[in-house]
Amino acid sequence: MQSRLSLFCDRLLEAGWLGAAAGVPLFFNIYSNRIFEPDKLTLLRLLAVVMAATWLVKVVETSPGFWSLRPRLKTAIKSNPLAIPVLGFIIVYGIATVASVAPTSSLWGSYHRHQGTITFLAYMVIFFIAAHHLRYKEQWQRLVMVTVLTSIPISLYGILQHLGRDPIPWSGDVTERITSTMGNAIFMGAYLIMVIPLTMTALVLTANSLVSARGRAAKVGKLLAVSGYLVILLIQLVALLFTQSRGPWMAMGIGMTVLLVFLPLIFRRPALSGAFGGASLAALIFIFFLNTQTSFLTPLKSISPYINRLGTFMDFQSGTNKVRLLIWFGDDVGGGAWQMATHDPIRFVIGHGPESMFVAYNPFYPPDLAHYEARNAVPDRSHNDFFDQLVTTGILGLGNHLIILGVFFVLGFRVMSGERELYRRLAALAMMAAVVAHLAETSFGIAIAATRALYWIYLAAMVALPGLTAAEKEPVPAPVLSTRRSQRRRLQKKPSSFSWAFLWRRWRLYPILAYLSVVALSVPSVFGRGMAQRVQQDPAFIAWAGFAVLVLGILLTAFALNVPNNVKLRLKSSGGWLYLLVIPPVIYLAHLFLSPVIADIYFKIGQEYERVQRYDLSLPGYLKAASWGDYQDVYYSFLGGSYLRLTEKTKEVGPTLSIKTVADLYSPGFSQPWQTSRDDLIQAALVAFVRARDLNPLNPDNTTNLGRLYTFWGQGTSDPEQRSQRFAEAHRYYDESVKLRPNAAHIYAEGGWAFFLDGKQKEAEDMLRRALTLDDRYEQTYAYLGELMRAQKRNEEAIDIFVRGGRAFTAVERWNEAQSMFGSAIQLDASRVEAYRGLASLFKAQKKWPEALEVGTRVVQLLPQDATAHREVAFFHQQLGHRNEAISEAEKALELASPEQKNDYSRFLAQLQGTKG
Fold it and tell me: What pTM value is reported for the model?
């Protein structure tokens, strides 16, 4: 017999998984630096904590004794076909975390993703609780309703972005490719493709019930529901289109193929199933030819940017497709994720650890990847979920995950073929189509908080689906005594054509209304005046207020949920006030999970000051961030950077302090570091950088920062012995960096420059030559190597290096550096034509026509018989409006032109002559 408390626990648990389905996709935090993924996962972790505490109370409340738990657990495992594989997955995650190359990141999650073992366990809590407490058909209907309705504000917000009506000023362009509450266009598409199948099957189910509806009110209600689902589906599809995300489009096509091929079979229409299959095949052929360069469909790409995006699926030589191939299989130097997964038999079995790829990938980094992404960026995901499973949890994790998927699809097909009730069969089909789309999308993308939450909820719902029963009908209220006048009024009242009470009971709107009420109450506090100032003053208060709003939302939803009414209740609970002992652990875990959010709010405050070069004001924010998130090396790296930059604005001499530990950074004597000496600031930066390296020793950025610091310190040191010692430290850290990331050209280049400044030219050249071998398109290497050649009086080699460097800087539009490189070559040899030509190309790219003409004229003076030189000068005259001079130079160019150049130069001259006068 259940108590009132255990019954309320059931409702609270359902409110938890509904909160995960609604809150995780909707939530984002504009006051933190990361805004989206980590904050969404903090919400998920908090939900899991509340659900776990509620489940514990429920278990104690309904268990006659401790020894009764064992048979109950056995029964629960036997009733859940996914229990054994999922428990195996948890064990594999535990092994991978313990043996991880980066244990802290594996446990807590990386700074940017937060998808560590703690988050994985939060998914597991939601999965097991939903699988064993989703027992009624009405609960499934509420889950579908919450999931579908949540997509409405998300989709509408994206559409507003496309229309240029976004109230939030994001740093990137969100009009061409919408991002909505996900922060990324691909993530937005990935979320929608997991909701659209549920919307479509709900539409089909409602349309089918419309046919058999009895009574005018029922028909009107069903018709409104069908219309509503059609509108929602249209909004979702429009939003998906506006993402312009090829991966989700392709995945949606695969998911829709599954849905549309099997849907007619449920209604025993095999011919229609074949027609949908044929249409899918025709669409696939169309896309194939659209992606073929010589195809007759190629002109269609110019009609619309959406068709053009659709026609670039098979472009593997540029863009994101090229990036993915490089991440997966590398180049001639680095073998990428495949080499990372297979180089060590032990790591092949157990993996490198969850969230470890951003450090474990470094030895296998392909240098060619630097031409498509930031040079100092390292992939933290393979952009393929199966690769990610292999590199993080090994073949054990990948195999276990495939077993889970296999059991899921077997369950789905059993429900589709063995169940009689239409809603079960449609529900199974919808979840299978959504999971297929998710798997297809994550084969080229990244599993995010919103999609992972829905993924595990769908797996839990598939387990529960065969055993769902209908809840008892609500009791009919007892008749109320009335007067003759009231009876006469009821008799005279016309029968209503539409019953709001019917919709209320049928669609169970109150859970949604409860959530929306909480959101409405919190909106003024989030967007009200003075909120930004309050956040800066006390981020901890805001974080805890958010947690309070979350708990309030769950409680309101739990109170609003209906439960079977014919349940015998006992008045007294088993534990009584002892259940209050659950509260302190919940508060402690909430503090643990909210701390990273508080730290990141402080970090964003520091970054805002750093952008305007107020390093004195950025320091307090970074220090607070480091104190709240002491395990994150990112905060200490930026803290050290601010100390170093502050040396440019401080006096050389001042009080000498002893800055030896992190605690010294918070000491009252160092509260105004900009008023101390330069060496004290450098010492403070050293403490911060060392702390970052201790926290994450496999991150080469941390050791490279130490190399940069000692190079900077040594360069400004006058004492020969101290200078030598500091450069020795710089060389040691650069050596450590190249061991951690042996294929990074920029680290070799910086290390070579440190040797040059230290006067060790042989070692400098060796490192700079190695940098060129790894990547001959890294522009800074040429600058360093050119200066080395000039210092050694190897002028011919220096000129060649400077010219090549000028071209490299021009290619990345670093105009000032390019001009300096060409200028250095000209200083060494005033008659070097290649340098002048490079300089002319530089000015041409910048459309600086007077400068281009001046340099081009110098080229003509050096090469009076060169047709190309005259052709270029003619073009520069044309741009400046000097038509006579342009024609004169064009005639000289035509006279000197080779047979291959004649036609082109003749057309150019004709054009100039046609515009004369």
Answer: 0.88
